[in-house]
Structure formats: structure tokens, C-alpha cells
Design brief:
Order of helices and strands of chain A: EEEEEEEEEEE
Structural class of chain A: mainly beta
Number of helices of chain A: 0
Distance between the termini of chain A: 34 Å
Order of helices and strands of chain B: EEEEEEEEHE
Strand order of the largest sheet of chain B: 1-9-8-3-4
Number of strands of chain B: 9
Shape of chain A: globular
Largest sheet of chain B: 5 strands, mixed
Structural class of chain B: mainly beta
Largest sheet of chain A: 7 strands, mixed
Radius of gyration of chain B: 14 Å
Distance between the termini of chain B: 38 Å
Oligomer: heterodimer
Helix content of chain A: under 10%
Helix content of chain B: under 10%
Strand content of chain A: over 45%
Largest interface: A-B, 26 and 22 residues
């Protein structure tokens, strides 16, 4: 029944590694997002896809590469992980034209880079 | 994006009403006022939104000033489960200018005392 799910929930890895975070939504939404919440709790948008097309690409290092294989999935691949990448990453989705353009968030993936 | 200003923290007692203020003096005519909240260790969740008129839903009420330069989220009877960070966000009606992105500020940490 989970509307927006993310895997894994926790990810602990070494600097320099490459890792992926996956997001799936079963709401039938056409737009998905990745947000990053750092240790100071600021939530910042990173990327957004609409119907598998990239529509928002904030100033994010190109080590971060989103991929949307279909409208229900948006994955985030991170190359050469750095200490500063440690954060909670949230996926979100919405339906274009939906009431209030409300975004539905996943539970987050807690990434710790050692 | 137009900016919002909220108090860093507020306290309330259980079963009492809570009024969470938000100033948005640079709001434009095409901006909706959205409120999201983030419970501990969870992703943000939608609370309510409005444009000009006051709004009610099962979670809360939103009172919008006549000049739209401020708004107040009202929780009619706070419960312990309402302890969260509450974010007041302005969202442009024009998706082309914003991608319907949400720009989160620091929010208000609400503490509910038993």
C-alpha cells in the first residue's frame, strides 16, 4: 500500500564508492523528484522528471545522475561518493494538474559516507 | 522564489489550539500558499494549501490575510503526534516557471507538551 517507496532505507558506504538509490510510486503520478536534506535539516530539490523527461536540474555535482526508466520509477546514482554526500535523500511524486499539485514524499534514504 | 518567514520554534499543550504564523510579504498574485509538515524521521507530508480564501480540511485550517502577505496554520486540538517541523511554502501557479517545485525554508519546530 506504500505510495512512494525508497530502497534502501539506510546506506553506509566508503568514500569513493558508487551507489544507487531507488524510488517507486504506485500513485499513477507523472512527475517525480529527488530532494536532499542535509545535517542542518535543509530540504533542497535536486532533480525532477515529468513523463521520464528531466525538467528540473538544480546545481548538483555531475556525480549525481538520475534515471527514470518509466513514470513510476526514479533512481539516483551517485559516483565517487564524498563525505559531504552524507544526508537523507527523499523521493517525491505528484500528478500534473492534481489538486494543489500536492507532492507525496517517500520515507527517505539515509546515506552515510565514511 | 518568494520567501517565507516563520518562527524557529513554538510550543503548545496537548488538546489546545495552535496557531503557526507565516509571513510572505513578497508573495505574487500567482502564488499558492502551501503547508507541509515533517514528523521525526519521516518524509514531509502535505497539510493544506490555499490561494485567497480561508481553507479547512481534516488536518487543519488555513487563515490567509486579506492582503495575502501572511497566513496562519491552525491546528484545532494539538496532539502529541502533531509534533513536527511545519513548513510554509509558496508555490507558483505557473509550472513553467517553477516546475511546481517546493522551496523549503527552515520551518517551525512545533513541540507539543502532554
Amino acid at each position: 500500500d506504500t505510495a512512494v517507496s525508497q530502497t534502501p532505507k539506510y546506506l553506509v558506504t566508503q568514500m569513493g564508492n558508487d551507489k544507487s538509490i531507488k524510488c517507486e510510486q504506485n500513485l499513477g503520478h507523472d512527475t517525480m523528484y529527488w530532494y536532499k536534506q542535509d545535517s542542518k535539516k535543509f530540504l533542497k530539490i535536486m532533480f525532477s522528471y515529468n513523463n521520464k523527461e528531466l525538467i528540473i536540474n538544480e546545481t548538483v555535482p555531475n556525480r549525481f545522475s538520475p534515471k527514470s526508466p518509466d513514470k513510476a520509477h526514479l533512481n539516483l546514482h551517485i559516483n565517487s561518493l564524498e563525505l559531504g554526500d552524507s544526508a537523507v535523500y527523499f523521493c517525491a511524486s505528484r500528478r500534473t494538474g492534481g489538486v494543489g499539485e500536492t507532492q507525496y514524499f517517500g520515507p527517505g534514504t539515509r546515506l552515510l559516507v565514511l | 522564489d518568494a520567501k517565507t518567514t516563520q518562527p524557529n520554534s513554538m510550543e503548545s499543550n496537548e488538546e489546545e489550539p495552535v496557531h503557526l504564523p507565516c509571513n510572505h510579504s513578497t508573495i505574487s498574485g500567482t502564488d499558492y500558499i502551501h503547508w507541509y509538515r515533517q514528523l521525526p524521521s519521516q518524509g514531509p507530508e502535505y497539510v493544506i494549501h490555499g490561494l485567497t480564501s480561508n481553507v479547512n480540511n481534516r488536518m487543519a485550517s488555513l487563515a490567509i490575510a486579506e492582503d495575502r502577505k501572511s497566513s496562519t496554520l491552525i491546528l484545532h486540538r494539538a496532539t502529541l503526534r502533531d509534533a513536527a517541523v511545519y513548513y510554509c511554502i509558496l508555490r507558483s501557479q505557473i509550472p513553467e516557471t517553477s516546475g511546481s517545485r517546493l522551496t523549503f525554508g527552515e520551518g517551525t519546530q512545533l513541540t507539543v507538551n502532554p
